[in-house]
Amino acid sequence: MYCGRFYFLNDLKKRFLYFSIFMLLFVFAKAQRTHELLQFSGLVLTADSLRALPLVSIRIKGTQKGTYSDQSGFFSFVAKKGDTIIFSSIGLKSVSYKIPMELSTAKYSIIQPMSEDTFYLPETYTRPWPTPEEFNYYFVKANIPDEGYEVARGNLRKQAINNISASMNYDSREAARYTIQDQNARYYYNGQLAPNRLFDPFAWGQFFNAWKRGDYNKK
Questions:
Q1: Do 103 and 166 reside in the same domain of the chain?
Q2: Is the same domain home to 147 and 109?
Q3: What is the residue-wise DSSP string for 65-105?
Q4: Is residue 175 part of a domain?
Q5: Number of domains in the chain
Q6: In the chain, N or C: fewer CB atoms in 10 Å?
Q7: Does residue 10 have a pLDDT over 70?
Q8: Mean pLDDT: which of 31-40, 122-131, 172-181 is highest?
Q9: 160-199 pLDDT, tens digit each
């Protein structure tokens, strides 16, 4: 019985020792991974004029992790030491930057310049007609498909234009004029009742004259 208890206690000590070693290794590995993380931030500027570049894509190479620069060209996100950062934007040359491994701080900032990228389009030749008379002849004789012609005619009908105009909102000038007129009317009759045209005999006279002329008949 004594030997059984001895072996049981010995086995329990071994299991406890293995568990302690495993926990120490786990904590060490987690601390090591946490130590590799850092807050990577900076500014993205144009290389020639040092102007802030907004909406530049900034991502870690080989992953979908990253961010975009804001309106002032600033960015900030969490990365690891040794990561390669890709900076890309339409019209600019892509740039890569590798975060150093030997950093001792948890924050790292850079200023990343980017230069414009030039795209060369294929060469295009524009050949005019030899004479204005020949151009006029072929312009009049041009074969326009009936479908496109009918669509164009339909878009130019008065009713279609009126429907489009009725569905449009006020532009800046019309909105400003309407607001000023409304404020002027409210300030003019401030402290008193505004006149009601329902009891205006002149307004009724204009209504009956328009009725007699047939202005309200449907056309």
A1: no
A2: no
A3: -EEE--TTSEEEEEEETTPEEEEEETTEEEEEEEPPS---S
A4: yes
A5: 2
A6: C
A7: no
A8: 172-181
A9: 788 877 777 777 888 888 888 888 877 777 777 777 777 7
